[in-house]
Amino acid sequence: MSDKKFVGYFRLLEVCDQPGCPLCRCVVRESRGYLDALLYEQVTDPDTRRAIRSSWGFCNWHTWMLLEIEHSTFGSAIIYDDLVKLALQRIERLGRREERPGPHRWLARLLTGRLRRGATTEPYSERTRCPACVSVAAAERRDLETLVAFINEGDLQAAYARSDGLCVPHLFAAVDAGGDRPEVRALVDRTRQNWLKVGREIGAFVSKHDYRNREPYTEAEAASYRRAFEILVGARNVFGNDVHDGQPGA
To answer: What is the mean pLDDT of residues 24-40?
Structure first.
């Protein structure tokens, strides 16, 4: 058994028994593990601190996830004390305006203001990616490769059949990465069966709301619409929104 299978295979077996997309579960767990390790042993590491400063801290999701990490208060405070000081230094120029002499001072002031605003905001617009996202994205690719590679193996095949299947974003990522490999086709076929199961349950949940119905809905049916949410867009926070990025699922 390869190390790749040893590390990823059994993690996938475990998350397949949890509700929702197995890969989304891996992403969330990897995110928490990364932050926990960083806060426990890397807060004062110079390379780690440089990476965090370069990205202006973590992304929105990973920043708020810090509150979910046990004993995270002190380490988080150390990191964000530094980041707030850095942000204050970087925005000092926003309040500075120079006036040039002459009859067209208003035009010079306008142009100067524009140049200064551009120079001030450039470090933020060109910041590096959230270091937690970089680490988690690499683990996500490995887990997806492991799922595709071993989808026909007995234990994983059975575990995946019990799951809700991959979400749309992760299934499409597997297709993009794996192309027309037989394992990818098998993953698509099995995911379709997972989705059909959720579809039947959400259909039953809807139909049982008919006033003439006397049959109670099951626990799985009651949770089916939430599972449908995850099928279409992935787990909460794992994929981005379109408000600022402009790209679906970016």
So the answer is: 95
Give the DSSP letter string of 115-149: HHHHHHHHHHHTPPPPHHHHHHHHHHHHHHHHHHH
Residue 131, judged by CB atoms within 10 A of its CB (0-12, 13-18, 19+), counts as buried
Structural contact between residues 100 and 108, judged by C-beta atoms closer than 8 angstroms: yes
What is the band of 217 on the pLDDT scale with cuts at 50, 70, 90?
Answer: confident
- Distance between CA atoms of 58 and 51, rounded to whole angstroms? 10
The helix, strand and coil proportions of the chain, stated in percent and rounded to the nearest 5, come to 70, 0, 30
Residue 200 carries which side chain, given as an amino acid letter? R
pLDDT computed for residue 110 by the predictor: 54
Query: Does the pLDDT value for residue 95 go beyond 80?
Result: no
Tell whether the model's pLDDT for residue 208 goes beyond 80: yes
Q: Look at the block and give the residue holding tokens 């988080």.
A: 76
Please state the domain extents for the chain.
3-125, 144-245
Q: Which amino acid is at 239?
A: F
Tell the residue number behind the tokens 């579960």, with chain if given.
25
| Burial tier of 9 (Cβ tally within 10 Å: 0-12, 13-18, 19+) | buried
Mean pLDDT value across residues 230-237: 94
> What Å distances lie between residue 189 and 124, 199, 219, CA to CA?
44, 15, 26
